[in-house]
Design goal:
- This protein has one domain.
- β2 and β3 form a beta hairpin.
- It is built from one helix and five strands.
- By secondary structure, the protein is an alpha+beta fold.
- Helix content is 12%, strand content 16%.
- The strands form two sheets. It has a three-stranded antiparallel beta sheet with strand order 1-2-3, with helices on one face. It has a two-stranded antiparallel sheet with strand order 4-5.
């Protein structure tokens, strides 16, 4: 699994790469709500204090993203769990 990474866009661009945000700064939306318990090595979705979303998953090679960005894949069930946790 890849480590937690930001989308590379918006006001938080590069914060995790610079080491200024830790996992404890994030609200975990998946893996412990109505789903199988996962350690920190499962695909997960997190929310930052500013309200942006951070996704942890397997690195994807679907296409080459721009410099400073990464693609990750997560199961649909993980995304659905995150949406439910947010009440959307």
């Amino acid at each position: 699994m890849c480590s937690v990474a930001s989308s590379g866009r918006g006001p938080n661009r590069g914060r995790t790469r610079g080491g200024t945000m830790s996992r404890s700064d994030l609200t975990r939306l998946t893996g412990s709500f109505n789903g199988p318990d996962c350690d920190d090595d499962c695909p997960n979705v997190y929310r930052t204090a500013s309200g942006s979303i951070v996704v942890q998953g397997d690195l994807s090679s679907a296409f080459q993203p721009p410099e400073g960005e990464a693609l990750v894949e997560i199961p649909e069930a993980v995304l659905r769990e995150a949406v439910r946790a947010l009440g959307w």
